Every structure is written in structure tokens, then in C-alpha cells.
Amino acid sequence: MEDNRIESNTGEITLKEIYFTIKEWFQYLLSNYKLIVLVGIVGALLGLGYSYTKKPKYTAVLSFALEDDKPSGLGGALGLAGQFGLDVGGGGGGVFSGSNLIELFKSRSMVEKTLLTPILQNGKTISLAEMYIQNNKWRKGWAKDEKLKSIQFLPNAKRETFTRAQDSILEIIYNSLSASGLSVLQKDKKISIITVEVKSENEVFSKVFNEALADVVSDFYIDSKSEKSRLNMTILQRQLDSIRGELNGSITGVAVANDRTFNLNPALNVKRVPSARKQVDVQANTAILTELVKQTELAKVTLRKDTPLIQIIDKPIYPLKKEKFGKAKGIIMGGFLGGFFIVAFLILKRLWKMLLN
């Protein structure tokens, strides 16, 4: 371009002017190099101090696989049961599958129930919520507050009996864990393996909370999915016991009636009617009992099919993965941030003076 000019919407600026402007700014910053270096050193020292005060974090990793809801070859048997008006379950079950199960792990109800799980610490049984409070030294700040000083989170306490203050504290713990302490993810949607990670400054808490959360969600998951099958099996078992009692009574009745008509005159066949009626009851109850036994066994198979929903693959093992803020990292980041902020401050200061002039 002629005269080494660059055209812009605001006018024409030569490359020479750009060069001298950059050089001027560079000389300005160079004239304040002592201040920049000093602030950079202070930042590096602060970063080093932060690396000493920053506690390491321990990550507990647990992985599990979901059971595939595939047909088990019971279609014909389930159809037969349906003809008798019996629902033995075996359908659906995908409400908590995949991403829904991931959200279940991160739900507030599951996390809070896990926080009330008991753990043995220094010979005393406490809840995980109490352990979290002790790890973060919250009770030191509560010592002067009469309402907070007496608050306790007992193991396996009933959630519905908690006060408003207890609810608020559990919510704070839940939000803290959800923000940075709890991670649930499925690395590949084609693979039904889900990984749960719990990160905290206490190695024991990370491991125990991870395992307890898996147990709580697993129990809830199994109960929710197999509730229908378990209810049907209970009803069938109750009916089975009832019919068995009726059958035993009918058999006894036949024997009693036969005893009464022993060596009876053939001309008095009417006396044999009670025995015949009892025989009919025995045959009917036998047929009903046979069918109920089949359906009860089928319900048990269906319930077993629905029960093993979560299979643990890997559990956290000591020592856990340790993440520590290193000294070198603290010095480099502190020095860089200190230098960056002082340079930005000097630039803004000079621009402000230029605007005033």
C-alpha cells in the first residue's frame, strides 16, 4: 500500500505511527519495571504461601454397571398369568435408566440420606454430616450462637423431624458437594457404565460417602423398580396360604364324613352327600392351589429378575488419588497474576491521564 498506510473507518494511520506508539508504551512499562518485578515477587510469595495453606483433596472413584432390561423368555408365562387376572410385573423399569439414574445420584434426597449414614470415628459413632461439619470446623463459628451450638446430626435420624436450622445446614452441605465434591457421569452413552467421584479434603469421608451413596441409591432403585413385583408376590403368597388351609380343612372333612358313613346301609346313600361335597371341595382347592403355586413361583422369578439392578465394578481403595496445589505451581501462578494485574493497572492509569489531558 502506498506510503505504508492502513485505512480504517476512523481515518488513516501509518505503520510508522503504530510502531512509535507501541515503542512508547513499551518504554513506559519498562520505566516501571521495578514496580512490576516487585509486585510479581509479592504475587509469587503469596502463591507459595497459598500452596502451604491449601489442603490436598482426595478423590474416591466408584464405577457400576446397569442391568439391561431385556426379555427373559417369560413372555408366554406372563401372558398365561394375565389370563387369570394376575399381574406379576416384569415390565418397563426404565424410569431410572441412564441419565435419570445419574440425576438420582445427584438428587438432594439421596445425598441427604447418605449424610445421615453412621460412621465410626475415634471410637464414636457419628453421621457423615457431623464428620463433614468437623472437617470444615464449622462448630468453632457456631460456639457463640445458641441456636447452632446445640444442633446435632445423629446417625440414621428421621429426616422429617429436623428443624429449619438443620434443613438449612443440610442444604449448604448438599450445595457444596454438588458444586465441587460430587461428580456422576457416563463417559460413553454406548456403554452402560457410570462413574461416581467424590472429592473432599478428608480421605476417609471421600471413600465412605461414595460407598454409602451407592448403597442408598441402589436400595432406593431396587425398591422402586421391584415394588410392583414384590406386592404381587405378597398377594399371591397370601392367597396360596389361604387355599392351602382350605384344602387341608377339606381333606379333614372328607375323612370325618367317611368315618360317619362307614358300613352305611346302601339304601341310605343320602348320608354320603356331605362326603361327596367335601371331595368336590378337595378337587377344586387342589386345582386352585396348583395354579397358585405356579404363579407364585413365576412371581418369585420375576422379582429376582428385577432385583439385581446395580452391579458394582470398582470401589475406592486406599490410598485415594491425592490432588495437591504444588509449590512451583503456586509461585508461577502467583507471579504471573501479580505481574498481569500491575501491568493492567499501569496501562489504565496512563490511559486515564491521557483522557484527562
Automatic annotation (TrEMBL):
Protein name: Lipopolysaccharide biosynthesis protein
GO cellular component labels: plasma membrane
PANTHER family: CAPSULAR EXOPOLYSACCHARIDE FAMILY (PTHR32309:SF31), TYROSINE-PROTEIN KINASE (PTHR32309)
Pfam families linked to this entry: Wzz (PF02706)
Keywords: Cell membrane, Membrane, Transmembrane, Transmembrane helix
Localization per record: Cell membrane
Keyword Transmembrane appears in the UniProt entry: yes
Topology of the protein relative to the lipid bilayer: Multi-pass membrane protein
Domain Polysaccharide chain length determinant N-terminal residue range list: 22-114
Record organism: Flavobacterium cerinum
Membrane-crossing residue ranges in chain numbering: 35-53, 330-348
